[in-house]
Design goal:
Shape: rod-shaped
Distance between the termini: 155 Å
Oligomer: single chain
Order of helices and strands: HEEHH
CATH architecture of one domain: Orthogonal Bundle
Low-confidence stretches: none
Number of strands: 2
Number of helices: 3
Radius of gyration: 61 Å
CATH topology of one domain: Helix Hairpins
Mean pLDDT: 84
Strand content: under 5%
Strand order of the largest sheet: 1-2
Length: 187
C-alpha cells in the first residue's frame, strides 16, 4: 500500500502543478488584456496636419505666332481631297506648262495652265474656212439652178418633180453651210 500512497501523492502533486500553471496562464492573459486595454485607452492621440503646400512660382508669357516646320513620318496612302482633269479645247503640242501642275502642286484661279502650239489650230481653222467658202459657192450654184428650174417649170419645160429636187438640193446646201460655219467656230 505504500506504493498507492506514492501514486496518490504524485497525482496530487500533478494536480497542484496543473492548477498552478492554469492560474498562472489566466493571470498572464488577464494582465495582457488589461495592459492592451490601458494602452488603447491612454495611447497617444494623433492630430491631422493641414496639407499646406507652398505656392508654385510661374512666369506668364504672351503667345506669339512663329513659323514652325512640322515633320511627320507616316506610312500609308495619301488620297487627294479633289482630283481635277484638265483637257484643252483644241488639239496640239503643249509647249509650256505651269509650274504648279505636278502632284501636290497649287495653281490660282485665272493662271495659264499650259500653252499649246497654235500651228495645228491655225491649220484646222484655215481648212474650216475653206470648207465654208466651198459650201457658200455650192449654195450659190444651187440657188442659181433653182431659179432657172422655176423659170423652166413655168414654161413647162421641166416636170414639177425635178423642181422639187432642185429645192431639196438648195435646202441641203443651206444646212451644210450652217453646219460648216458651226464647225469653224469650234476649230
Amino acid at each position: 500500500m505504500g506504493g498507492s500512497n506514492f501514486g496518490l501523492a504524485m497525482q496530487a502533486d500533478n494536480t497542484q502543478k496543473r492548477t498552478h500553471a492554469t492560474g498562472l496562464s489566466i493571470a498572464v492573459i488577464g494582465v495582457a488584456v488589461a495592459l492592451g486595454y490601458w494602452i488603447h485607452r491612454t495611447g497617444p492621440k494623433t492630430q491631422a496636419e493641414e496639407d499646406v503646400r507652398p505656392p508654385r512660382i510661374v512666369k506668364a508669357v504672351s503667345p506669339t505666332p512663329a513659323p514652325a516646320r512640322i515633320h511627320v513620318v507616316a506610312y500609308g496612302s495619301v488620297v487627294p481631297a479633289r482630283r481635277v482633269t484638265v483637257e484643252p479645247q483644241v488639239s496640239g503640242h503643249v509647249i509650256r506648262l505651269h509650274e504648279g501642275l505636278r502632284p501636290g502642286g497649287f495653281v490660282k484661279a485665272g493662271d495659264e495652265l499650259y500653252a499649246i502650239d497654235p500651228t495645228l489650230a491655225e491649220l484646222e481653222l484655215a481648212g474650216a474656212e475653206a470648207q465654208v467658202a466651198r459650201a457658200e459657192a455650192g449654195l450659190a450654184e444651187a440657188r442659181r439652178r433653182l431659179e432657172e428650174g422655176r423659170r423652166l417649170a413655168e414654161e413647162s419645160v421641166i416636170p414639177a418633180t425635178e423642181l422639187a429636187s432642185l429645192e431639196t438640193t438648195c435646202r441641203m446646201q443651206e444646212a451644210e453651210l450652217q453646219r460648216l460655219k458651226a464647225d469653224r467656230l469650234r476649230a
